[in-house]
Amino acid sequence: MIHASFLTVCKALNFGVVAVQRSLKFQLNNYRCKGSIRHIQMEINHKSNSSGANSDSRGALVVLEGLDRCGKTTQSGRLLTYLEGLGHPAELWRFPDRSTSVGQMISSYLSNQSQLDDHTVHLLFSANRWEKRSLMETKLKSGTTLIVDRYSYSGVAFSSAKGLDFEWCKAPEIGLLAPDVVLYLNIPPEKAAERGGYGGERYEKLEFQRKVAQSYQNLHDASWKIIDASRPVEDIEKQLQEIVSDCIKTCQKGKPLSFLWSC
Ligand code: Z5A
Ligand code: MG
To answer: What Enzyme Commission number(s) apply to this enzyme (predicted)?
Structure first.
């Protein structure tokens, strides 16, 4: 049963990646050829909007990343409470999303109840994001801010730390929505390991977390904010509130969605 659904996922994922790559190539060519026309059309759209509201107004895609035990789940929850308190529509998401059938395969692998080839599990993590992509876009366009606890960066950092090729790891993520901001909770692996100790999951080992920390270093881009995660919870919380409030304002004013990996 798992075998059959896994084959379906892999076929779908392979198809999805090829389709998205073709689609992006097409859009890029189209943009190159018709860039000026597109620009004029966008200006007209803006001018014709008599309410003054920007048609690109939307919620923000906020991602929290970092090593195991750096405080992602703690801070994600606090951010949600803060935004709800302001009356801003927001939801908390996390990856892997263990509620789907793909997520259950991942969960079983992480808890050492099943064995999978490293490439295979990498593609499952990616499929788990693809199965949520269109809902993610719908939510953002409806004005909801999404706080996402782990995303594609975890996928690439963890799999490349196992020795898989870095660019190969990035490929299935191409075309997923790019975060507006990545809050990287930076902590030395040794310090993170002291926090309540690691549980029994597959990657919760100090030596491996050191490799993951190195892999994350290769993923920084302009959307990243590096946060000192060794500080007290409340200090980090305050810093994140400021960054996210600014980010939400920018998205509300109007910011087109972008896609991985464009920068
Ligand atoms: N994985 C992958 O390989 N590929 C992928 O594509 C994705 C994930 C998406 C499951 O992740 C594993 O899947 C993960 C990566 C891999 N493996 N690892 N490692 P998960 O999300 O289920 O597990 P996790 O988030 O890494 O672990 P975690 O324990 O949930 O860590 P956290 O959310 O960052 O930390 P926390 O729960 O908020 O806090 C941990 C403890 O520290 C807790 O006792 C807190 O009270 C305490 N804490 C938090 N902040 C502080 C501060 N500032 N000071 C002191 N103590 C603190
Ligand atoms: Mg967590």
So the answer is: 2.7.4.9
